[in-house]
């Protein structure tokens, strides 16, 4: 695997590859890699001639300073994981490389209602930060295919919108990968490393609750299902930001005849660790 720290060098390297007919996939990450990340790398390797991954903990997308400061880092292990998986190129930029002019005057993207709901509501500015970094990374990498995890369901939609706004949706094919889970159902996440032993035992309750909600969709009112789920998680010691039933376009659904796919989404804290998860019901 080649490790590149500067955008100019990466751009030149990839340009040469493209001139030689290579198609390449891109997997952006914030490091502290787990098997979920690796599954994206493997998917990209299967579908492209070359796979580029990036590790960059993006300060601009953290609305909560302590979340940023406590975000796990394990760069040596990450490099080993990427090499073992067979990733071809790791882009490892500095903050200065991504934001040479600092954080003032970053472009604003018109994300519409996507920015007002769910993660957008509870993490103000988060998706603008995500778009800033992804836009910058895409300008440098210019991949044929971009790999994202459904674990961050709303983020996938935001980035689809970003590609549309920036006119890149013709050039870049968005590929979404399913959420990888631990054997007890907990969605793999870098933040799981921050859970204390006792919290780790409780954490799968989010996915269990989503699964239980899915089983009630045809029988009970959505209001009751959401209210019971919230109460249940609170009784288990979670602080719930949201637990909702939406259409997969993230619009609210009032009633359901079983034909439209739904997504159940949750975000909840165990002490100061914020976990998110979702479950698509076809
Ligand atoms: P992150 O490092 O958390 O920014 O994630 C980088 C990419 O990996 C994003 O596209 C995530 O959606 C994806 N990802 C994170 N967790 C998982 C998981 N458990 N399964 C599959 N993909 C994931």
Notes on the structure:
The chain has 11 helices and 9 strands. With 282 residues, it is of the alpha/beta class. The strands form 2 sheets. A 6-stranded parallel β-sheet has the order 1-4-3-2-5-6, sandwiched between helices. Strands 7-8-9 form a 3-stranded antiparallel β-sheet, with helices on one face. Strand 2, helix 2 and strand 3 form a beta-alpha-beta unit. Helix 7 crosses helix 8 and helix 10 packs antiparallel against helix 11. The structure holds adenosine monophosphate. The site of adenosine monophosphate (AMP) has 17 residues, from helix 2 and strand 5.
> How many angstroms separate the termini?
39 Å
Order of strands across the biggest sheet?
1-4-3-2-5-6
Count of alpha/pi helices: 11
State the total count of DSSP E strands: 9
Tell me roughly what share of residues is in helical segments.
Answer: 25-40%
Mean pLDDT: 97
Question: What is the alpha-carbon Rg in Å?
Answer: 19 Å
Please summarize the sheet with the most strands: 6 strands, parallel
Identify the bound ligands.
Answer: adenosine monophosphate
Fraction in beta strands: 15-25%
- Overall shape: it is globular
Q: Write the H/E string, N to C.
A: EHEHEHHEHHHEHEHHHEEE
Structural class: alpha/beta
Low-confidence stretches: none
